[in-house]
Each structure stands twice: as structure tokens, then as C-alpha cells.
Design a protein that fits this description.
Strand content: 15-25%
Structural class: alpha/beta
Mean pLDDT: 89
Number of helices: 14
Oligomer: single chain
Largest sheet: 8 strands, mixed
Length: 420
Amino acid sequence: MQNNKEVILKVEHLCQYFKMGPTYELKAVDDFNIELGKGEVFGLVGESGCGKTTTGRTIIKLYDATSGNVYYKGQRIVAGIRSYKDKIKSEKKRVEDEIEKLREEEKLGDSGAKEKIKTLKHELSKEIAAQKENIKLAKIDQKKCDKIYSAKLVSQLKAELKEKREQTSNQEEIEKLEKDYALKIQIAKKERLVNEIQMIFQDPIASLDPRMTVREIIAEGLIIKGIKDKEYIDERVCEALEKVGLVREHANRYPHEFSGGQRQRIGVARSVIMNPSVIIADEPVSALDVSIQAQVINLLNEVRNELGLTIMFIAHDLSVIKYFSDRIGVMYFGKLVELATSDELFAHPLHPYTRSLLSAIPLPDPVYEKKRKRIVYNPIAEHDYSKEQPSMREITEGHFIMCNTEEFNKYKKQLEAEKK
């Protein structure tokens, strides 16, 4: 599931399970894998409740992942430990079963059984030690990646300051350098790696504090970073407002004084003021009128091109997704079932669920609407996984689908027939 661009965000076997009582777990996200290239817009689509928002919130660490990893620019920022614990349990069970068989063989006179048991126990202890080390490293990356990142930034800034000091003998310049770098180092100490990833929330009013002015809302991230210069903060807030099509005078107003589209623009400004590399846009236009949707989408496009942002665009409106995204992933019940470029997915949808979603898109054409037939997706009727479980497979370059071998061959023939 790679693309040709530099990979900036890699999600690997991400799982997010929620306990629903003493014995039942809801698998909101189950084995989710994706790689996002620099400057790419990746659309994640699916019906309500399929796990799209949970995926975004887990990536940005609003939820602790059950298992799996998220890497930002090669550094692990999210690490779940369930898979390592499960591996220990499964290995223990396997070894116990094998030892029980070997003990039966020993009773029947097998002289080599005792040595085999000893070897199995030794291998088990090595495997358990390895998995415990994985758990330890995962906990360090999950909890301390921000400290490691800030320490790295501070070290780099101190090295820069030392190098520049050595290059000048003017005392005034040295004092100015030290003053400038003291502020940079102070900010770097409070820098967090996850600040590089920002989120635009679905509801433009619920995500804005009604007791805070627009200036306070947008500037909150800068203040948390340790910036105290009021003039600098005001200037950055005004820049962010103008970038999203608002004016400086809006800074002293409250969220209830704005329309839905303007509130969403404030949400975008709050995200871009932190100079992120990745934005997770969680259905940013679903609560807006069609004309306002177009304005917000065009705004995101402008901001993306200006700042070189990578965007994960979460939505259930396929028309919006097609217009805005480079690649599209289709999600069903916590799993990614199909992934392809925007043009490829709309031209050659293969998974029955993708076809069902596309058949639900209404068009402003009364004649077409009278003839349009909805495709109903029934996973029990469509798939038989009793013999072989499905996995994500590449059917053509860049086009992946969740299927088993039998389905893969069927989809391959179907795709060849469509392209003739």
C-alpha cells in the first residue's frame, strides 16, 4: 500500500478495541494499514460507525491504541501492546500442547522426548523475553516520544548556537543570538511530536469553546508551546485568520457570532497556526450547506498547496471524496476493504461494499434517478471465508482489495473484462 512520494505517516496493523461489558469487545478499528506520502490527500470513506473517526483519533493519540504502530517521519509515535501480549499467550498454549504430547511419547519409551521438552521450554523463555522487550519499547515510544523529540530539538538548537557563536566575534551579535536562541530553546522544550499532526473536527460548534474568543481558541496551541510574546501571538493569529478567509476584526468575537462555514474556517485556522505537516480532517463539511461545503473544500485545497500539507480526509460523501482525494480507502466494520487512486476506484470498483456505496450516490438528473438501482451489500451472501480468511492483496498496481484466493481470481477476471 505504498505510493511513490516520501512516506510521512505510516500506520501499521492499527487496532482499537473498546470493552462493551465483561466478555465482549467492539473492534472499532481492526488491522488498519496505510502509508501517506508528503503532500498527498488520502480519502477515508465508509458508512457511519465503520471506524473512520476512531482511526483518526487513534493516530493523533486522542485514544490509546490497543495494538499496532503509527510512525511519523520514521519515528514511532503510537504503539499498542495487545499483539505482543497475545503472542506470549499463543506461544505458551502451543508449547504446553506440544509438551503434553511429548510427555505421552516419553511414557511410551521415547528417549529423546525429555530433551525436546527442554528445548521447547528454552525457546519459549526466549520468545517471552523478546515480546516483553517489545512491550517495554512500545510503552517508551507511546509515553516518551514527545520528550525524546523535544530533547533532540534542544540539542540541535544548542549546536546551531555554538556554531554561530564561533563564527562571530561581535559581542552585540553574540548577545542577540543568545537571546533569540534562548526563546527558541524554551519553545523547543515544550514541543511535542504530535503537534506536527493536527485535527479538524466534524462539528464546528462543539469543537470550539463558547467561553473563549476566536483569538484565544486559535492561539491556545502557541501558548501551550510556551510562547508568551503577546504581539507575536496576535500577529500569528491574524495571519491564520486571513489565510482561511476571515479578517483580523473576527479575533475578538465568540464562536456563536459566526455561521457554520465561518466556524469551520476557525477550526482550520486553529490547525494551520501550528505549522503541521499532516492534518486529519474528520468530516469537516458534513454539517454544512452544499455551497459552504465547496468553500471549505476549496479552502483546504489552497492551504494544502500553500503549506505542502498531507491530509487524511474522512467523509462518507463519495462525491466530495472523489473531487478532493488522490487516493481513497473504503472502510467497513473497522477494516480497510479496498484502496486505490480516486480515478481507479470510481472507474473499476471491485469489492461488493464499494459498489454498494457508489450505487448510493444521487445525481441531479431525474431520468437517471428513476433508473438508478441500489446495490445492497450482504457480507454473509457475498463472501465465504470458511476455508480461507481474507487478506489485503494488490490486484493491479496501487489497487488493493480485501479478499481470499478464490475472490482474488474472480475480481481479476472481472477487472480484465471491464478494461477490454
